[in-house]
From TrEMBL:
Gene3D superfamilies: Ubiquitin Conjugating Enzyme (3.10.110.10). This is NEDD8-conjugating enzyme UBC12-like. Residues 11-153 form the UBC core domain. Pathway: Protein modification. The active site is at residue 93. GO terms for molecular function: ATP binding; ubiquitin-like protein transferase activity. It comes from Piliocolobus tephrosceles.
Length: 153
């Protein structure tokens, strides 16, 4: 193998590569590199074993910039869901992605945050106000809406 054929990784890719190797296996979670030539996007499929999205596989894309881990990745939910912390375009709002972000937050913590987001949605400071109101006032309707969306995919 020649040295020319080895791709030089960017600093954020080195960090991500280490975090990927250090990940603890979590039941119901699958990660995939979207482009084999870089680590700018990683897909995460989560199939919760409890909560409102039990046994539904919800897919996210984590988009990393060269400035990771100084800046957080952008997370987009690509499965259509009705959720207080996911807007109509799939943008995900987690506290750790905004005000609470520190470079000490790892990929493992982000994935666990997404799992908690699905198993225990919160209506405090919602990104999707309508979903928060439905969840607060009519949990059965919240489940019904998500079941309908999931069937359509």
């Amino acid at each position: 193998m020649s040295y020319k054929s080895v791709k030089k990784l960017k600093p954020f890719e080195l960090v991500l590569q280490k975090e990927l190797m250090d990940l603890d296996e979590i039941e119901g979670i699958e990660l995939n590199q979207i482009n084999e030539n870089n680590l700018e996007e990683i897909s995460v499929s989560i199939t919760p074993r409890e909560g409102y999205f039990i046994n539904k596989t919800i897919k996210f894309v984590l988009k990393f910039k060269d400035t990771y881990p100084i800046t957080p990745p952008k997370i987009v939910c690509i499965t259509k869901i009705f959720h207080p912390n996911v807007d109509e375009n799939g943008n995900v709002c987690l506290n750790v992605l905004k005000l609470d972000w520190t470079p000490a937050i790892s990929l493992q913590m982000l994935i666990l945050g997404l799992l908690i987001l699905l198993t225990e949605p919160t209506t405090e400071d919602p990104f999707n106000i309508v979903a928060a109101e439905v969840l607060q006032n009519d949990k059965r309707k919240f489940i019904e809406i998500n079941n309908d969306l999931y069937k359509r995919k």
